[in-house]
């Protein structure tokens, strides 16, 4: 364990950012090998990732700060490497667990499988995952030393990937999440309701468990506002062992460097029918570009089914020209077996086309993908608090009027349990569509970068944006939080 920073040894070189408090690593922190694993080529691949140069700095920040915000380009290696660095540094010793959350199940499964492969262990043992209805981790019961009748859960899983929703669910049994030493909330830019609630609760847990470390990471996160959120409001002084506590003000680390080059192409003119547009683009890539799989981003199941149908029809009618295309849809409504087809290697001479919602936007590495075709739109969920207020108000009015009606019957007739006639029942207004809206809207620049980042992961790639460059510059920098707070 001599290749990462330990308290008491020389610290890695860092400078304060001029804008105040932002830590930025000025030089490569370490050039030495990271671990004692004997997996030569895999180890070399790991060391080639940009995040490797920041290994010592990351471990130093996690050691000394309660919260670290890590911003690293797509393909810098955050998701697969940071949990391994932490494990190698001893954060999973003594039965503790390192958690890494992802917004989506598919990402949890694929990242866990990759990390297990890199570590040369069986998935479900040292590296495991938990998603809804599936727990692939290893916990067994042991007799406690103090009381031979008592049983305690012991974890052999050291690195656990899980969705943020599952971690929230775990809080119901263990509100302080005591088994975790470090919790990494990855892809925090997505700002789904569960991610935001999780971040709020983790901040509270940290006050009770100062030893818990949080890492908030993404390629496209507003680091300063995230850091401001975790800034402790009051600095506690004079507590026993204060000098051993980590610094409560969050550290921000920017991991520079990315994977292979991805050439970006914009549409020359804005298009009206993006489904037809992406289908034509896929066909021209297939006819003109060298081999390599294609990942298409559309908004939802309807669009995807239409595109799959159009491409399959084209393949049949055009004979040789479009043959060789294997078209696969990807959305959350598909069965797991159907979703997993996207990971099957493409047969020689064929080209796989995965047509997906934003389920494939973050954390996924599909090895064969060379081309990304981005429609520029996604279905976005908005929680509308104003509508919610209007709806609850309406419900209250109707409820009150029905209560008044039933009271009226009771009072007048002096028959307390007389059934209320059906005409007095007042239906409550339909809530769902008003409160939670799923709307097709242009994506943000952050999403566009994430989508482009699905190419260039294991070889150079190209991204075709179905937006003109002028349209692109009108996009919002970041997507709206699902639950707006301001
Ligand atoms: N399933 C996989 N198969 C092959 N290589 C993989 C796989 N998963 C990750 N890798 C390799 O590890 C690299 C880093 O992936 P990782 O997911 O850690 O990056 P990241 O910085 O978290 O990216 P993103 O922000 O896009 O999720 C990939 O570019 C790829 O070279």
TrEMBL record:
Record domain Helicase C-terminal: where: 277-486
Alphabetical list of Pfam families matching this protein: Helicase_C
Gene3D superfamilies on file: P-loop containing nucleotide triphosphate hydrolases
Entry keyword set: ATP-binding, Helicase, Hydrolase, Nucleotide-binding
Catalytic activity: ATP + H2O = ADP + phosphate + H(+)
Enzyme Commission number(s) of this protein: 3.6.4.13
Database matches in CDD domains: SF2_C_RHA
SUPFAM superfamilies, A to Z: P-loop containing nucleoside triphosphate hydrolases
Record flagged with keyword Nucleotide-binding: yes
Domain Helicase ATP-binding: 59-239
GO molecular function, one term: RNA binding
Keyword Hydrolase (UniProt): yes
First-level EC class: hydrolase
Top-level lineage group: Eukaryota
Protein's recorded name: RNA helicase
């Amino acid at each position: 364990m001599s290749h990462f920073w330990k308290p008491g040894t020389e610290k890695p070189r860092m400078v304060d950012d001029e804008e105040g408090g932002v830590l930025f690593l000025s030089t490569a922190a370490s050039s030495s090998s990271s671990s004692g694993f004997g997996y030569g080529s895999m180890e070399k691949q790991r060391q080639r990732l940009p995040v490797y140069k920041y290994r010592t700095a990351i471990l130093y920040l996690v050691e000394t700060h309660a919260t670290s915000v890590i911003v690293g380009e797509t393909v810098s290696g955050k998701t697969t490497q940071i949990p391994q660095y932490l494990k190698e540094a001893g954060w999973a010793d003594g039965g503790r667990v390192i958690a890494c959350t992802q917004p989506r199940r598919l990402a949890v499964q694929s990242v866990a499988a990759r990390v297990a492969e890199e570590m040369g262990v069986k998935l479900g043992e040292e590296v495991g995952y938990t998603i809804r209805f599936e727990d692939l981790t290893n916990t067994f019961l042991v007799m406690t030393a103090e009381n031979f009748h008592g049983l305690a859960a012991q974890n052999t899983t050291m690195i656990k990937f899980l969705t943020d929703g599952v971690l929230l669910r775990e809080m119901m049994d263990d509100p302080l999440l005591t088994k975790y030493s470090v919790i990494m909330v990855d892809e925090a830019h997505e700002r789904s309701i569960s991610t935001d609630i999780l971040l709020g609760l983790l901040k509270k847990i940290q006050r009770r468990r100062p030893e818990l470390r949080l890492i908030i990471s993404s390629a496209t996160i507003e680091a300063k506002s995230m850091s401001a959120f975790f800034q402790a409001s009051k600095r506690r002084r004079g507590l026993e062992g204060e000098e051993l506590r980590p610094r409560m003000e969050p550290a921000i680390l920017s991991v520079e460097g990315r994977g292979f080059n991805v050439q970006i192409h914009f549409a020359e003119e804005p298009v009206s029918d993006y489904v037809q547009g992406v289908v034509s683009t896929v066909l021209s890539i297939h006819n003109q570009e060298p081999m390599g799989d294609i990942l298409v981003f559309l908004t939802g199941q309807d669009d995807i089914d239409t595109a799959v149908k159009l491409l399959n029809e084209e393949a049949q009618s055009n004979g040789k020209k479009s043959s060789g295309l294997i078209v696969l849809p990807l959305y959350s409504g598909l069965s797991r077996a159907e979703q997993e087809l996207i990971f099957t290697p493409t047969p020689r001479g064929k080209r796989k086309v995965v047509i997906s919602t934003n389920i494939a936007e973050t954390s996924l590495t599909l090895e064969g993908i060379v081309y990304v075709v981005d429609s520029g739109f996604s279905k976005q969920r908005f929680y509308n608090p104003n509508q919610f207020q209007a709806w609850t108000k309406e419900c209250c009015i109707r409820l009150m009027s029905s209560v008044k009606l039933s009271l009226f019957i009771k009072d007048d007739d002096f028959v307390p349990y007389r059934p209320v006639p059906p005409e007095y029942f007042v239906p409550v207004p339909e809530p769902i569509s008003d409160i939670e809206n799923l709307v097709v809207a242009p994506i943000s620049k952050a999403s566009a970068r994430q989508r482009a980042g699905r190419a260039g992961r294991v070889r150079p790639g190209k991204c075709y944006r179905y937006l003109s460059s002028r349209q692109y510059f009108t996009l919002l920098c970041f997507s709206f939080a699902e639950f707006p707070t301001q």
